[in-house]
Structure to design on (342 residues):
């Protein structure tokens, strides 16, 4: 099988693992497995079993795991999972020369340049008007809400990890103020992730159900108990449709904030598990209307390309790219800010 790199995408719900080889056509995945995300011991056990099954345990040049949590000094605790991992400990477990832990959105950002056009859906063409060196951003609602910034051209791309999904939610109108108050009573603090995630969509739906003016709709509709059920029922159930429309508008607003924060002339990419599942709703005018609704910045925001990442394994591909860069000795910096070379 030759020399390989091992890549992992460790989310709050599931873990994807892939073995990759670099060839003349770029990175090629040679094997894949996934399992429910779990604690440290089970993660190491299942990863080792995968390597043994693929006869790859002695063929690893480098390993990179993208994890849904902040990486500090080679360690990470997955924010919505409780999994704790350390680079040095994992390096000993897998007997490999190079092992990197990065934030999962860091890994997703590293994959953007490798994606084909058919793996990107355009919501706004924009202009990418500052060229190859312009900053781009990734925003990913899924089990949580992830963010990352990409700076510089592909020959020396620098990626900045972010925990901006945990920043405070800022309501824009009276309804959103009421929503904020509802969530404040429930959680004590209201972050963006409390709304822009799978659990966040359910929070929005629960808020709508308890509003007095929706009493009639509550009596007529079946109760939706998950984000997936809300999305599936949105076309026929008033409250589910209203919840999803609210979610889309809030996502557009936060996306516009992020684009301005990073001066993202190179583009904004929506990734994670949710956008690809609601792509038709994102094409509705309410998303871009909220994205543009930034006062004097509206003209600038209309120039920012906005795309949806359709590849569900983008983070895995990005982790493989980072592992290959590390195997060449080309990975510089810290897990929060690293230069990735092609």
């Amino acid at each position: 099988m030759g020399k390989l790199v091992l890549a992992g995408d460790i989310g709050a719900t599931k873990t994807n693992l892939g073995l990759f080889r670099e060839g003349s056509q770029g990175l090629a995945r040679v094997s894949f497995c996934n399992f429910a995300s779990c604690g440290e011991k089970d993660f190491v056990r299942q990863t080792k079993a995968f390597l043994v099954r693929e006869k790859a345990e002695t063929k690893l040049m480098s390993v990179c795991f993208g994890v849904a949590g902040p990486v500090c000094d080679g360690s990470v605790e997955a924010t919505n999972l409780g999994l704790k991992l350390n680079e040095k400990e994992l390096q000993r477990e897998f007997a490999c020369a190079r092992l990197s832990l990065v934030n999962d959105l860091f890994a997703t950002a590293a994959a953007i340049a490798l994606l084909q056009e058919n793996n990107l859906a355009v919501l706004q063409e924009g202009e990418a008007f500052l060229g190859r060196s312009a900053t781009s951003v990734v925003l990913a609602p899924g089990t949580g809400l992830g963010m990352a910034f990409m700076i510089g051209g592909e020959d020396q791309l620098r990626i900045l990890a972010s925990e901006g999904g945990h920043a405070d939610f800022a309501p824009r109108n009276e309804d959103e103020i009421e929503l904020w108050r509802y969530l404040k009573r429930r959680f004590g603090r209201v972050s963006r992730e409390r709304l822009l995630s799978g659990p966040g969509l359910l929070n929005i739906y629960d808020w709508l159900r308890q509003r007095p003016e929706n009493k009639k709709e509550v009596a007529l509709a079946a109760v939706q108990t998950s984000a997936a059920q809300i999305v599936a029922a949105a076309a026929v159930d008033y409250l589910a449709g209203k919840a999803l429309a609210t979610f889309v508008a809030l996502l557009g607003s936060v996306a516009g904030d992020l684009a301005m924060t990073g001066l993202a002339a190179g583009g904004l990419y929506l990734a994670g598990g949710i956008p690809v599942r609601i792509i038709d709703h994102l094409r509705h005018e309410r998303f871009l209307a909220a994205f543009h609704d930034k006062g004097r910045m509206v003209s600038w925001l209309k120039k920012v390309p906005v795309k949806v990442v359709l590849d569900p394994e983008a983070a895995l591909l990005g982790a493989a790219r980072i592992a290959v860069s590390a195997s060449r000795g080309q990975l510089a910096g810290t897990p929060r800010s690293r230069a990735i070379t092609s």
